[in-house]
Structure formats: structure tokens, C-alpha cells
Amino acid sequence: MALKITHDCINCDVCEPVCPNHAISQGIEIYEIDPDLCTECVGHFDVPQCQPVCPVACIPLDPEHEETREQLQAKYRRLVGIAS
């Protein structure tokens, strides 16, 4: 399941640089996470890197983009160019 940033975001810019997939970018009002790039850091780290650095805890799981760990791992492999 991809993560999302809620409207509680204060645009502090701490989440964007810690994302290994470059899935986080500044949106029109707040930072946004591209679900096609978000692997919840699977393949890079044991836990998502954006959640612990967020000072307002506004990065929950996105129920509109449910994925299993296996699907996240496959997405990671595709993003970094590793053949299945």
C-alpha cells in the first residue's frame, strides 16, 4: 500500500529528501506522494523513511492504493531496473 500526505501537512520539507524513490514532491498546496513510485521504502529500508521524520504525523497508509509486500517489492525491482 502506498503512503499519502494529508492536509495536516505544514510544508516543512523534511519528507522529500528522505524518500529513496523520489515519490514525494511539492504539490499545489502541500507535499504529495506519487503512488506509482511509493514502495513504503520496501527494498531500501525496513520502514518508511518519511513517517518518522514528519513532525505532524500526516503520512498514513493510502487505502486507495492497497498493495501487498510482494507487490511493493516487485514495484521496487521495476523502479531500480532489476529483472524479476
From TrEMBL:
Q: Which UniProt keywords apply?
A: 4Fe-4S, Electron transport, Iron, Iron-sulfur, Metal-binding, Transport
Q: Name one GO molecular function term.
A: metal ion binding
Q: Which domain of life is it from?
A: Bacteria
Q: Which residues form the 4Fe-4S ferredoxin-type domain?
A: 1-29, 31-64
Q: Enumerate the InterPro entries for this protein.
A: 4Fe4S_Fe-S-bd, 4Fe4S_Fe_S_CS, PSI_iron-sulfur_center, YfhL-like
One Pfam family this sequence matches: Fer4_7
Q: What is this protein called?
A: YfhL family 4Fe-4S dicluster ferredoxin
Organism (species): Solimonas terrae
